[in-house]
Design a protein that fits this description.
Pfam families: GHMP_kinases_N. This is 4-diphosphocytidyl-2-C-methyl-D-erythritol kinase. The structure is a single chain. The chain contains nine helices and ten strands. The chain is of the alpha+beta class. 34% of the residues lie in helices and 25% in strands. The two termini are 21 Å apart. Strands 1, 2, 3, 4, 5 and 6 form a six-stranded mixed beta sheet that branches. It has a four-stranded antiparallel beta sheet with strand order 8-9-7-10, covered by helices on one side. The chain has two domains: 160 residues, Ribosomal Protein S5, domain 2, CATH 3.30.230.10; 122 residues, Alpha-Beta Plaits.
Length: 293
């Protein structure tokens, strides 16, 4: 069985505070895009295993997809009132989403495993059940279980579905740098995260009132300054990309990937061709033409 596991972008991200346990509260709008990993499931396996085409992705029990399968099997046994559900699954991930790019690839893989296992076992769990399992794995996993676009609050687990004004295409670009989410959050200066709050608040109100969100307005990611300070190559990549495209370039998540929204037919394709020619000798820089799903 083959299932697509989509990436996401953060259209804005505002960090509102830091909790005593070290986690950060935030407000962000996330949207799934059609850049996907391909995940293959073999249910003839006798145990749980994970392999991945990317060398930097672990293939042991620390992999989020492996942890998702493990927690699903545990919860299924509990639901059936047995000690253990026999069988297993071999999960093979063909990685297309840049690793450490702020695109949620690992969280998406975990959510895809949860949903696929639930489908295979004739849906013993509700979507809410799967989202609760996902939260044990990571703050973004419930979003990927839900899919689409959503306003996320708390540490990212409090979700309100939303409708977006849809651009023609979304151009994604990765510098080939794997940014550490933990380090980027740790480095953030909370005193500098309030300057763009009015725009974010307008989008939040629109979401709460079930109105279409106008994402063509000026948006902001509070984590961008921290990521660029920690990784000068991320700042250099953004500067080059913005200079070439003369467009608003936004970082997604904790970095290191950037995106541009294009609102007129043909613009994104022209930008893609330009960057492809510019970076064709650099195997680390990757460019993708995507759309919301």
């Amino acid at each position: 069985m083959k299932v697509a596991s989509p990436a996401k972008i953060n259209l804005f991200l505002h960090v509102t505070g830091r909790r005593k346990n070290g986690y950060h509260d935030l407000e962000t709008v996330m949207a799934c895009v059609d850049l996907c990993d391909d995940i293959y499931f073999d249910f003839q396996a006798s145990d749980i295993s994970v392999t991945c085409s990317h060398p930097r992705v672990p293939e042991d029990e620390t992999n989020l997809a492996h942890r998702a399968a493990t927690i699903f099997w545990k919860e299924l046994a509990r639901k059936r009132g047995v000690g253990r559900v026999p069988g297993g699954v071999a999960v093979a991930i063909d990685k297309q989403i840049p690793v450490g790019g702020g695109l949620g690839g690992g969280s998406s893989n975990a959510a895809t495993v949860l949903k696929s296992l639930n489908h295979w076992f004739d849906k013993p769990f509700s979507r809410r059940d799967l989202m609760d399992m996902g939260l044990c794995l990571g703050a973004d996993v419930p979003f990927f279980v839900q899919g689409g676009a959503a306003l996320a609050r708390g540490v990212g687990e409090l979700l309100t579905p939303c409708t977006l004004k849809t651009p023609c295409r979304v151009l994604l670009a990765s510098p080939g740098v794997a940014a550490s989410t933990a380090l980027v959050y740790k480095n953030i200066n909370l005193a500098l995260t309030t300057g763009h709050k009015s725009t974010n608040n307008a989008l939040i109100i629109a979401c709460e009132e079930n109105r279409v969100l106008d994402i063509s307005v000026d948006m902001h990611n509070d984590l961008e300054a921290s990521a660029c300070e920690l990784y000068p190559e991320i700042q250099a990549f953004k500067t080059e990309m913005a200079g070439l495209l003369t467009q608003k370039v936004m970082m997604t998540g904790s970095g290191a990937s950037f995106f541009v929204l294009f609102w007129e037919d043909g613009q994104a394709e022209c930008a893609f061709d330009m960057l492809s020619r510019r970076w064709h000798n650099n195997p680390h820089k990757r460019i993708f033409l995507t759309s919301f799903i």
